[in-house]
Amino acid sequence: MVLLKITAVFFMGMAVGVMYRIPRQLLLSASFVGVAAWLVFYAAVSNQMNVIFGSFLASLTVGFIAELLARKLRKPATVFTTPGFIPLVPGREAYTTMLHMVRGEYIEGAALGMQTLLIAGAIAFGIFLSATIYRLVINYRLEGGLGHAGKN
């Protein structure tokens, strides 16, 4: 069953890549970013971690791998980030939230809606944090450490 899900995530990444016109030679790499992210999410949730924290860890993975590939292949990181985070998007939760609201189940809808927003925020923050940390580390290495900082 896990292999089927991995295959589905891979092809989802390919489809998103084609939809966003990612260059053909980068589609495989971009799709594997999504697979790596989903595997991190799956491992986190399988080990009884919170879905929100699992989404955060998976989006950190997306960000770091995307930055590494962007630097290595000399392409923008968003080429790899977009297909990478799509499998993490809480679409089912958003749908179920709206379904609860339409049925008049406002308490359940509000609770699930809050969780959906927290998952989306965790994804965004993870990608932001990984890109920021990566750039700080790269700048630190390029400038030769702290001794060079602050000099004009």
Give the arrangement of secondary structure elements.
Elements: H1 2-19, H2 27-46, H3 51-73, H4 78-85, H5 91-102, H6 106-142
Number of helices: 6
The total of beta strands comes to: 0
Q: How far apart are the termini?
A: 57 Å
Range of helix content: over 70%
Overall 3D form: globular
- The number of distinct structural domains comes to 1
Radius of gyration: 18 Å
In the predicted model, the low-confidence regions spanning at least 5 consecutive residues are: none
From the helix content, strand content and strand pairing, which structural class follows?
Answer: mainly alpha
Strand content: under 5%
Order of helices and strands: HHHHHH
> Main sheet?
none
Q: What number is the mean pLDDT? A: 92
Describe the overall structure.
The protein is mainly α and 152 residues long. Helix content is 78%, strand content 0%. The model has no long low-confidence stretch (mean pLDDT 92). It has one domain (2-148). Helix 2 (27-46) packs antiparallel against helix 3 and helix 3 (51-73) runs parallel beside helix 6 (106-142). The longest helix is centred in the C-terminal third of the chain and has 37 residues, at 106-142. The chain contains 6 helices and no strands.
